[in-house]
User: Fold these one by one.
Assistant:
Number 1:
Amino acid sequence: MTQLELIFLGTGGGRFVTITQKRRTAGIRILSEKLNIHLDPGPGALVHSLNMGLNPQKIRAILVSHSHPDHYTDAEVLVEAMTQGTTKRRGILAAPHSVLFGNETCGPVVSKYHQQMPENVIELKTGVNFNISDIKITATEARHTDPDTVGFRLENRDFGDIAYSSDTEFFEGVGKQYKGVRLLLLCVMRPSGKPWKGHMTTDDAIKIVEEAGPEMIVMTHFGMQMIFSGPYREAKLIEQRTGVPTTVASDGMRISVGEEIRVRRMERKQKGLDDFVKSRK
Ligand SMILES: [Zn+2]
Ligand SMILES: [Zn+2]
């Protein structure tokens, strides 16, 4: 059976976590036999790829959810890696209007020069979909301070569906877009009781999970307040309220999705941080 592997090169988000690198902000690499995708290459994407032995020249698609620095800053150098130092036109760059052309509040953040290098540049809007080998990728709706922000749903018959919310606040129907996914990655920037317009708190995450009913949740993209409050405590809250197993992402963590979902962490085992296996329903 085909396996999909997610490697969390970064799990931090927001301005203060980015400028202090309290958690890395390098995005997520998604790998399978036929797939090599980098999702949201924030600051550190290139360096942490190299440090973890993940050759950035093997990337075949770069997905950027919106034009905030913790999601896009390394996009251009990864385009250069993907196109072998700009010598080959290849790969896909998929990003919303703000990233490619700019909108009233932000962007563009990938230069015209770099947009000419990939074989394919896809402008994303809610509902736009495209295929990379046997995986269908659909842009989902997000409501954030960059109004063009999108999330992603990846569909595949072998290992089921996974999704990434990107930065979004809760709105009616956000979770429905992720109905039936096995693994739901949520950018839970803020802890319970600390709302901030355009961003997700633990309370919002609970509502999204209730709508979506995923097999498992991964919390990531932690802001400073979330780090101080303690993401493990917040994960417990989500589990207690929804009954859905909730994993807190850590830098360097790998999740393989196949017959079962398996989580492996880079740091030494600590209490509550053991390897985790979730069998397919
Ligand atoms: Zn962000
Ligand atoms: Zn953002």
Note: The chain has one domain: 4-279.
Number 2:
Amino acid sequence: MKMIPDRIKKEILSYGADNIVAIIGEYVPLRKSSRSYTACCPFHKEKTPSFTVDPGRQTWRCFGACSEGGDVAKFLMKIDGISFPAALEILARKGGISIPNDGYKEESERRNMLNVLRRAQQFYHNSLLQNQNGAIAYVGSRMTDAMVRQFGIGFAPLGGKTLVEYLDKERFPLDVAEKAGLIKKEDAGGYRDIFRGRVMFPIRDKTGYIIAFAGRTISATKSRYKYINSPETPLFRKSATLFGLDGAIEAMKLKGEVYVVEGYIDLMQMWAAGINNVVATCGTAFTREHAAILKHYVRRLNLMFDGDDAGRKAHQKAILLAVKEEMKATVFIFPDGQDPDSFYKNGGKTENLVTMSGFDFLKQSGIEMNATMQNLHRLERLENGVAYMARSIPAVARLLAKRGNLGELFSQEFLPGIEEIIIHHGGAR
Ligand SMILES: [Zn+2]
């Protein structure tokens, strides 16, 4: 049996917890009943279901003869008669999480890379505070001091070797810095900085560790690329990373929805406006992996990509991915020439933006919808219609209150809104 490092163990268990219904559902035919799932208990003989899986609490329990319960690993141990590590291996396989062959070596290498990335962030941040190459003029025009502090924004000086020399002086092994995507080998031997003359945005994993950087040039003419990212490293895969995820998780869980923006500064500006459930793609299109990550926390994606041609394509792709992951999508449309950065910077309010349901957006842009999507679209419009009538016609609200068991009529997402309307109209619940 391999030794499993704690970090991987955590990742496996959190994957298992997030997918408890699907995993237990492979062994037991689960039926949905309001907020949980039930079945006849696989561990004792019974005719009425007393076995319950609660995706909110991420646990299972038998309320019958066994009166046992626990997490998904405990379920696997019990049903397959296996040990805890064996259950973890099964979960890891299901979640596509690799358990390193030499867990400890890999773990220490990872720690070294995280260390050097953190130190590089401090170096960049100090370079900005010292106004190297006049970087403060640009940074000050785009963001406030509070934003700089909160997100740890920095500046990579011009020159080409400033970080290399700093890390060398601090006795950091340069091969680790190379592996972490900070510096690269020169043809002539020696190393040089990857980021030069750029404003530096630290990119963090979901637990807040810095795993990469994005760098924006401060001169309009000198560089071919406005933004560059760290290269792909053992810590960083662009297509599976969302900027701001670490800070957004709590708010996403609370609100059940997330705003998805294109730019780093878009996200920072929204934080400054008090909106925390927001993530940004790291200079890449929204991917299937992004959708799978967000599905752990939310049921709805609020898409805020640009209004241009590329932005429209990005919206379409993200909506299709959301549908695949059984999430809803809403497109937010900004006034001409504005993006989240300029809109929120000038005091714009989200509720004043024009929105469009994902399905309506697809339909309007001429995307062929399959039968399932067309049905979902009809259902969405029906629910919207009933909610609208309940809001404007008290008799409808009262009728719904009498009908009871609204969970059968409305999807989870609409339920709280409908209940609120009914209570508002004095319906007894
Ligand atoms: Zn039982």
Note: Residues 41, 43-44, 51, 62, 64-66 surround zinc ion (CB under 6 Å).
